[in-house]
Amino acid sequence: MALTAETESRLYRSLRVASGAAAHLVALGFPAAVAVLARPGSSLFSWHPLLMALAFSFLMTEALLIFSPETSLLRSFSRKVRVRAHWALQLLALLCALLGLGIITYNKHLNGKGHFVTWHGLTGLLAVLYAGGQCAGGVLLLYPKLMKNWTLAKLKLYHATSGLVGYLLGCASLMLGMCSLWFTTTVTGASWYLAMLCPVITSLVIMNQVSNAYLYRKRSQH
Question: Which parts of the chain are coiled coil (predicted)?
Fold first, then answer.
């Protein structure tokens, strides 16, 4: 029997709620697992994986999920409050990423190793720089009059799209980090594949959220 439009709508909404809940759990669970593996404080390097996981898995994911109509933890609050929370989380993510980058750079310097000579290192550097640029670009949304030839709606759309690119870069850096010697010697077998699945899940949820926001904007124009 064919599903009615109302039933399909409810089913789709339920799937979005379930996927959003999974993204929240993964966003928190992945850094927690990394903390157990890295044992922060046991060495200078141990802070690098934790800070990067906090930046790109937890803080940045939660900063983007704040605008989800189904799974935002602040959906009962006004948009103004959610925007401020988004800003706070993004700045914390950038701070963690910068600290993580600084620590691994200094650690390589102490050990006489080359800087940014792997795909993980290059992608991580690009992700951190991109996050900094994205935060700077977000200022335009606070002061849209600085861009006189752009509407606020268009600025929001481009900021969201650009933010998605930066988020995917961060997730790619995490996945490449899980191919490093440190991670592969610590996590093996099915656990490794499960860990690799974490940024994939959050990326798919965030991409779906951004694409739905774009489609909603297109429909509202007609």
Answer: none
